[in-house]
Design brief:
By secondary structure, the protein is an alpha/beta fold.
Length: about 180
Amino acid sequence: MQYTRRSMRVMGIDCGTECTGYGVVDIDQRDQLACVAFGGIRLSNREPLPQRLSAVFARLCEVIERHRPDRVAIEDVFYAVNAKSALKLGQVRGVAMLAASSQKIEVSEYAPLTIKSSVVGYGRAEKEQVQMMVARLLGLVQIPEPADAADALAIAICDLHTQATLGKQRATLGA
């Protein structure tokens, strides 16, 4: 059975309490990746947390409305040493999920090891290796800045690779 898939657009979000990165990536029927947009939402520690969360929500909604992704992918919770930081990060992740789900967009979560494996082929790859591979896969001349945007692009690429694999498996099984 021949596997055919329409092109897809995924927005990756790398949640952070100081900077939340985003990246939008397309894949076509020939499995060619293309970078659509990326950037970072910088937050001031001087502002109260509710205002920072509101800013992240508003900006992510803007990006979603502008680029209309089919899916949104975010990095799964990793275990931090500092519980207070982990809680704040969880709140930013919740806002990111809300931004996508409020616009009826499916959200997927991926573990850091899964993202690195999908992009570099090795789950314990260094951050710089991931960033260089993101630039290479997307045909970019430079590594995307800020680093959170490069990470967000990696998350989007991971989701696209995962969805392509799942689609091929469904086609093979005749589903």
